[in-house]
Amino acid sequence: METRVALIGIMVENPDSVEKLNALLHAYGSWIIGRMGVPYREKGLSIISVVLDAPMDKISSLSGKLGMLNGVSTKTIYSRRD
């Protein structure tokens, strides 16, 4: 199975979505290489970066599901290497 390395940048503005977000990340945990979260309390914002090595359909699926959560925005970038 061909995989790509990708980074999903996540901005969480609605704390009520964190539980669902974490459940999604757990469900895709076998593809996740690493994760870093930074709380920006002054702005009421959480910034999370997730690095994956996964098939394109898994990356797109996770990014899409995260972006559909209320108050959650995502942007995905891919490595140029296959």
Percentage of residues in DSSP E strands: 35-45%
> What is the radius of gyration?
12 Å
Helix content: 25-40%
Order of helices and strands: EHEEHE
Question: Main beta sheet, described?
Answer: 4 strands, antiparallel
Mean pLDDT: 95
Strand order of the largest sheet: 2-3-1-4
Terminal Cα span: 11 Å
Query: pLDDT under 50 segments (min length 5)?
Result: none
Number of DSSP helices?
2
Shape verdict: elongated
How many beta-strand elements?
Answer: 4
User: Class by helix and strand content?
Assistant: alpha+beta
Write a brief caption for the model.
The chain is an alpha+beta fold. The chain has 2 helices and 4 strands; from the N terminus they run βαββαβ.
Blueprint (SSEs and pairs):
Elements: E1 4-12, H1 18-27, E2 32-40, E3 45-54, H2 56-67, E4 72-78
Description:
The structure is a single chain. The N and C termini lie close together (11 Å). 18% of the residues are buried. It is built from two helices and four strands. With 82 residues, it is α+β, with helices and mostly antiparallel strands. The protein has a four-stranded antiparallel β-sheet with strand order 2-3-1-4, covered by helices on one side. It has helices at residues 18-27, 56-67, and strands at residues 4-12, 32-40, 45-54, 72-78.
